[in-house]
Amino acid sequence: MSTSNQFNRWPACGGEAADLIRHLPADATPLGPQDQWPKALRNVIDLMLPSLAEIVVLWGPDYLAFYNDAHARSLGNKHPGTMGRPTSLNAPEMWPEVAEGFERVRLRGETISGRDMPFTIQRGVESEQSYFDFSWSPVREEDGHIGGVLCIMTETTELVRATQALAASEKKARERDEQLQMAQAAGGIGGFSLDIQSNTMSVSSEFCRIFGVPECEVHPCNAFGRLRLDPHDRMTTRAGLVAGMAPLDVEYPIRRANDGAVRWISRRAELVRDSEGKPVLMRGVVQDITQRKQADARLRQSEARFRVLARAMPDHVWTATADGRIDWVSESMCTFVGLGQAELLGDGWRRTMHPEDLPRATQAWSQALANRTAYENEARLRRHDGAWRWHRARVQPVEGSDALRTSVRWIGINTDIEDQKAAQHRLAQRVVERTRDRDRLWQLSADIMLMADVRGRILAVNPAWQALLGWSEAQLLGMRAMRLLHPGDVAPTVAELRRLQGGQMHSRIENRVRHVDGSYRTVSWTAVPDAQLLHAVGRDVTALRESEARLRQSQKMDAIGQLTGGIAHDFNNLLQGITGPIELMRRRMALGRTEGMERYMDAAAQSARRAASLIQRLLAFSRRQTLDPKPMNVNERIASMGELLRRTLGEQVRLSITPGAATGAAFGDAAQLESAILNLAINARDAMPEGGELRIGTSAVLFDQAQAQQLDLSPGRYCAISVADSGTGMTPEVLAKAFDPFFTTKPIGQGTGLGLSMVYGFAQQSRGLVQIQSQPGAGTTVTLYLPRAHADESASPAGPIGAPPLPQGQGEVVLVVEDDPSVRLLVLDVLDGLGYRTLYVHDGASAILILRSTARIDLLVTDVGLPGINGRQVAEIARGLRPDLPVVFMTGYAEHASTRAEFLAPGMQMISKPFEIDDFARLVQQAIHSVAGSAA
């Protein structure tokens, strides 16, 4: 049955959803049979079904659901049972969320829309929360009443969840960065962040230096646990952290990894918990306190020895009683502040601290005294000359020797960090200045700049967008960048962005960006990925591309002028060779002289064949010839041409054929391949006037994705046929024009200049490639690449030489449809002479009338390019009326018949004009007998 008869019933389009609607029983819905459904509903369904967007129309007070294939894919196992059923039954889990909105649309005529809205949906066994962009609008019937609700939806669940995950990841990264920056600013203190779930630690460079391990942002936790020397507490266990029982502030000895030195480490940390109170992160700082520990040991041994050591230290050392009152300070401390021991004892230290820093220091010191914990603080102390300098005070409690450990003393060290603070301030200033320079460039650049996330959502733009494209920052923020691109540029841009996400460092992309007024500007982008962001700078190249287009148009017009001039020259010669002999034959026949007529007929026929050959080459060059591509054994085809090539080349040219063992079968038109090889051989012969060698070789070639993209081919395997000569070669100027039509270096009358053009057109139409390599005096090599046939396709062998006698008909009836009177007369005379009976019409409409009658018709012979209804459409209608009717197409040129396999259905044949009478007769007999044979 004809393809066109599949959609005689409404709705007249393909797809699973359309088929479901088409076969709904009349009692499946309150609407009855489909031909009684409201016209407005049928119109909306006709518009909805072919759409690629997810669309549902909900009809009547029960909101009967009718949807397209795009929406069916999001229904899960509910489809196809939901077609035509009430929405409250189809989706009871989400009905309470949507019922009120549907009522507003159907009863009040409102339009409701939303972006990234959550809905509860059950696609399988369990319900899940999904997110959608949606628009609900009323569908009005012919009398103006609202009959239903049109729902257009786009699911954004993946995008919303990705955005949420990205936000959580960014928050975690910010917290980690804050810890690392704090540690770096502190100097001598390493920051860390322990992920309890993965048991990995993110650490600062100072942390790595303290432990003597290589600098690396992330380390496994046990890498540090192995360095601890405490046999009772090698490391803080993950189980202890999860239970909240592990100590956070500890001191422990380690053996440093790089030099084996024993060092004491002080760790201060805190736990970060999730919304359920479960510990997920431990973060804090570590400090090498070996020096302090050594000092503590010496203090315990002897107060005198400690004070001697304190005098030798560059830092300021002091001690305090259990209540925090200073009872001794080092001489370096007294010298620095310019006060004596007596003036600093007790609470005298307060006189040396900056008034702005005193409240914070006092509060922290009070807490340390109350909790008997270490104290650390930064504050400005006044030097003896009145200058304020930053100091870091670090104080440790020292337990007494009594059994109850009730006696406590305090030992403190003040370290001058003024230079470190100044360096940090200079660094901050440089960061501010660089940020200011970057912002100035962002604001003043004439190029458009943007920053987007991994989903292509715009996060930031510079003012140049409004100047160049009219879009304000408020309009662009949050928009998906792909919405601004020309539809034809979206796919290549997405492919390039995927390469960036895959690790490519940077990319240059050119596409058309929509102006706010709807026009497009051509923009050349430079894009660079950065973690989860994409940074891009675009330059307007519209004027440059338009200038290039005008140049290409000018070059095209020059080429067309050269082409038409060449066609006019050759056709005038050929027409003269046809019309001249015909005129002479008329004159001789008028005089009754018939002798010697054969030579005039031969001359006219020869010119006609040359004209047909010229047309065939023009069609090949323009990639409009009708091809019959099939799998063919390349080596066998070339081997079968060996004798023909040797006769063509002559005795002065040596022919060498070297077939590649793994060449295999190519997919293409065997006759056109042989013609191309013959053309290349003739060109090679003419390039070797003194004789030489012609080498024809074959091989298999594999083009990967990068190579194929560079050559504008599909990646995969190809059969390569190379024709190489030892002739004169080509200059670069000649090589650049080698494929131009009617370009030839041969003397006038010895070549049309279409040989290489035909080879080029055949390669392009076959989805292949042709390349030339040539140098003056070094010969020329032309390589033709054809797609390799798949393994499941069998190659056709070279056809046998010779043909059977001209077949005769047995009175079969042939319907001829041809609008050209001369061709029609010729075909009818041929068929009558072969014993067939004929019916004939001049157009497709008249042919359909005969086909609908009861007249006997055994074969339809029709031109493809008929006025009105074309020959292919006539054949489709004929097959609908007479399913087994064979068809023979005649074509001079058919725009959509470039590949026979794509144009012809089973039982159809094609012959190209001008054709030989014998070929036409055999094709007619083959078509009629094929049907008779299949019937038998």
From TrEMBL:
> Mind telling me which SMART domains this protein's record contains?
HATPase_c (SM00387), HisKA (SM00388), PAC (SM00086), PAS (SM00091), REC (SM00448)
The UniProt entry, under Gene3D superfamilies, shows: 1.10.287.130, 2.10.70.100, 3.40.50.2300, Histidine kinase-like ATPase, C-terminal domain (3.30.565.10), PAS domain (3.30.450.20)
Q: Which residues form the Histidine kinase domain?
A: 566-790
Q: Which residues form the Response regulatory domain?
A: 813-928
Superkingdom of the source species:
Bacteria
Q: Which InterPro entries match?
A: CheY-like_superfamily (IPR011006), HATPase_C_sf (IPR036890), HATPase_dom (IPR003594), His_kinase_dom (IPR005467), HisK_dim/P_dom (IPR003661), HisK_dim/P_sf (IPR036097), PAC (IPR001610), PAS (IPR000014)
Q: Which reaction is recorded as catalysed by this protein?
A: ATP + protein L-histidine = ADP + protein N-phospho-L-histidine
> What protein name applies here?
histidine kinase
Q: Which organism is it from?
A: Variovorax robiniae
List the lineage, top down: Bacteria, Pseudomonadati, Pseudomonadota, Betaproteobacteria, Burkholderiales
